Amino acid sequence: MVNTERINFLAKKSREQGLTEEEKAEQELLRKEYVEAVKRNMKAQLENIILVDDNGKPIEKTKKH
Q1: Cβ–Cβ < 8 Å for 3, 26
Q2: Which residues pair with 58 in a beta bridge?
Q3: What is the number of domains present in the chain?
Q4: How far is CA 13 from CA 3, 42, 49, in A?
Q5: What's the pTM value of the predicted model, to 2 decimals?
Q6: Model confidence pLDDT, tens digit, residues 7-30
């Protein structure tokens, strides 16, 4: 789970007084983890969508990458 409280804290501190190099590195890592979590969540949601035709019959999915 992504620590959004820490992300928000670092963003606020960055605006108000700046960050140390260590905090900047932590912020970058946390942001990357957050983006990856959002991508995983979106992918999971999209994979669970069932498309149906006009008659209500499920349409077979084709996998595209």
Answers
A1: no
A2: 52
A3: 1
A4: 16, 29, 40
A5: 0.76
A6: 999 999 999 999 999 999 999 999
How many other β-carbons are positioned within 10 Å of the β-carbon of residue 10? 19
Quote the tokens at residue 16: 């108000």
Q: Please count the other Cβ atoms lying within 10 Å of the Cβ belonging to residue 24.
A: 13
Q: Which domain holds residue 22?
A: 1-65
d(C-alpha 65, C-alpha 52), whole Å = 22
Residue 1 token pair? 């789970």
Structure tokens at 24: 């900047």
- Cite the beta strand spans of 1-65 per DSSP E: none
As given in the structure block, the two tokens for residue 62 are: 């084709």
